[in-house]
Amino acid sequence: MLDDTDRRILRQFQADPRLTTAGLAERAGVTPATCWRRLERMQEAGIIRAQEAVIDWAALGYTVEVSLRFTLDKTQPRAFDEFITAAREIPEVLEIQTFLGRVDVRLAVIARDMGHYQQLYRDRILTLPHIAEIEPLMHLSRVKSDEVLPV
């Protein structure tokens, strides 16, 4: 699917996505036209999904991060869909993951402080539909956060 040229381009693109096509081509050892065509092909194939700004939410005053693991009441036929639809409406929910196993869903939630988290938990999280069990995990530190793939 990807050849060595594609991998070189992706490695350099991941290292510095702000590079111009000419700069990226130079670092990857290809012509700008080749680089542009390869990037276009990888975007069309869905390999490169987007370029986005990564904002440090802690710098904006959000000091609390919690992972909430949910087991849902699966006797309800639409439990997953209704839970996820409602969870998407909470702006402080940064990520929603679903699982096979004892845990059904995990939410990554941020809050400005513990008071804000308590309010969010009581007013928004506990009112989500079809909850059978919740396990909160308070984040202490982020040891590794990397989205660079080994291409």
Task: Give the rounded overall mean pLDDT.
Answer: 94
Helix fraction, binned, reads: 25-40%
Strand % is 15-25%
Distance between the termini: 12 Å
Given helix and strand content, the structural type is alpha+beta
Number of strands: 4
Lateral arrangement of strands in the main beta sheet = 2-3-1-4
Low-pLDDT sequence parts = none
Which secondary structure elements does this structure contain, and how are they paired or packed?
Blueprint: H1 4-15, H2 21-28, H3 32-44, E1 64-72, H4 79-88, E2 93-98, E3 105-111, H5 114-125, E4 131-138
For the structure shown, list the relevant keywords:
20% strand, 151 residues, 5 helices, alpha+beta, single chain, 4-stranded antiparallel beta sheet
Summarize the structure.
The protein is α+β, with helices and mostly antiparallel strands and about 150 residues long. The chain is about 35% helix and about 20% strand.
Account of the 3D structure:
With 151 residues, this protein is an alpha+beta fold. It is built from five helices and four strands, in the order H-H-H-E-H-E-E-H-E. The chain has helices spanning 4-15, 21-28, 32-44, 79-88, 114-125, and strands at 64-72, 93-98, 105-111, 131-138. It has a four-stranded antiparallel sheet. Strand 2 and strand 3 (105-111) form a beta hairpin. The radius of gyration is 21 Å and the shape is elongated.
